[in-house]
Amino acid sequence: MLKTSTTDVVPEKKVQAKQRQGFKLNAKDKYYASIFLGPSLLILGLFVFYPMIKTLYISMFLTNTLGNTTVFVGLGNYVKLISAPDFISSMMVTILYVVAVTILTIALGLLLANLASQKLPGISIFRTLYSVTMGVSVSVAAIFWLFIFNPSTGFFALMSGWFNLPVVNWLTSPANAMWAVIITTVWMNLGFTFLILLGAIESVPRTLYEAADVEGVSSRYQFFHITIPMISPTLFFVSTITIIGAFKSFGLIDLITKGGPTNATNMLVYRIYKDAFYSGNYAKSSTEAIILTVIIAFFTLLQFKFLEKKVNY
Amino acid sequence: MSTVLTNICKKYDSDKTVLSNVSTEIQTGEFFVIVGPSGCGKSTLLRMIAGLTPITDGEIRINDKVVNDLPPKDRNLTMVFQSYALFPFLSVWDNVAFGLKARNNNSQADIEERVNNALRMVNLEELKDRKPRELSGGQRQRVALARAVASDAKICLMDEPLSNLDAQLRIKMRQEIYALQRKLGLTLIYVTHDQVEAMTMADHIMVLHDSKVQQIGTPTEIYKKPANEFVASFFGVPPINILPAIKTAGKTVNVNDDFQVKIDQQVPTDSFKIGIRPNELMIEEADELSANASIRTIEFLGDEKIVYAKMNNNDIEVAAIVASDAQFKAYDTIKVTSSDNVLVFNNEGVNITKNAEDAVNA
């Protein structure tokens, strides 16, 4: 934590004068500033800030099928949406999905990272294998898992056949479809999570474990009382990334279930997409988008607050 | 009741020898220092005693029990690391209690008593709720010591515990560690590269170099009767002057034509080496004709000065300690003479000084 030195206190006014002087730009500075900032400001403005403000604007109107605003309704769209049962169920589905994906991703990532951090011969092969999903694109992963889930020729179906178990309809039963999407997402997330957690575990000083070894501390106790607290900042970072990523899941859902069956996997993002581009209900879709933005902003804020106070030792 | 090392060897791969045939006996309650330049294998030896690094060959016996294959926790010892190995997320109190709590066979009252006792012993009671990052280097070092004290173990291993501290604090902590060791009757095995630490604290010193034990002895033995040229050079500031010498007909040897030293013994070869401690060299001002050296630099140390001079005849550098009020300056011409308290080394560097036994008590 930074501590300001009290020995050389400069009077407030002087500081302000200095700062003002410091920020005074001459023509050359302005020229360079515009060259460096210009491109990113243009791109961000065009593709992020403008759509964001436009979305907020549309969410307060009714729209026609072309997406043009017609009648100003203020927060009317929000009130309507929050009391709509299908939106509530969509929210519940999203929350279930996010919670399951986050818990499973972190737990499995931690398990694999802890295994791969052991000093064993040939361990680097496993490190590569575990992180390989980082290089797989969403579409490839979706097709890959569609093959596995296929009820007649898929790997799971084959396994059921070998052990004389009933074949599970992964993608046609509402309850199972949810799990299919969760499994696929966790598999996709695992590479990144594994790699980040492995890095964190490897950077814990070895002497902490050696000191514990000498004192006769069991390896289980070491994991929960040395490793976990030492990597807690990273753990929290990965959790937040995973939560935000899960809220934004779109590709896998579109490719695997298309929000079905019977809306069982109709997550918020997918709903936004369908409402706008299938039903042409741009106002409703914009309202949902703003709600999603608020939720994600809340988690981001939480991350910053929490990181500052609790996790940083 | 002692720690016995017999022919300890450590090899990495098949050819890289880190330690070969290290043997010694460390008595219970003694302060044993393992010293040597960096890379000599001293930390490896300590880690092997702790059980953190497996030994390639040999036998380690603690209290008549072979511990070669025992994990660290069953060797009943404690260790203080160079980096202190404190848990940054725990308070001072919890850091000291960590091992006791984890082992699960201590009652809460017992833990509290032992931790509080240990903290009192290292004067950290008032800081018990602080986190390590809120402590100074010396205080962190004390937490590490308290952790060793709180454990029941009677053997304590320390791996360069003072090397992260500044010079003044090092002297203070040196005394504290020494006092603690005496008070608790610990068997302390202490690794350092600092010869001063070794000399000031040790009951016995083991000097390691080139993966071999050079000498084991008390500080006096090591200083007065070094086994070889390396040990002689390693101890003493400034280091001993090792000079080439040539046999003459009489009882003197020639370092060069202008500088003779008296030795009272036979030497096996015509040319050999002698070692003269800087405080055994005398310097006097001399005119160009009678001078045999000229001063290069002078270091003022307060109550004495170190004079570095170059012999005129064969450009050999020597260091001498003179009184601090001696009026020398750089480039003065001087005459260097030696007392006859001289060590004699053969060409392999082995100490062959006659009557070396007597020198210990001198």
UniProtKB/TrEMBL annotation, chain A:
The keyword Transmembrane applies. Residues 91-303 form the ABC transmembrane type-1 domain. Keywords: Cell membrane, Membrane, Transmembrane, Transmembrane helix, Transport. CDD domains: TM_PBP2. GO terms for biological process: transmembrane transport. It is found in: Cell membrane. PANTHER family: ABC TRANSPORTER PERMEASE PROTEIN (PTHR30193), INNER MEMBRANE ABC TRANSPORTER PERMEASE PROTEIN YCJO (PTHR30193:SF37). Belongs to the binding-protein-dependent transport system permease family. This is ABC transporter integral membrane subunit. It comes from Companilactobacillus kimchiensis.
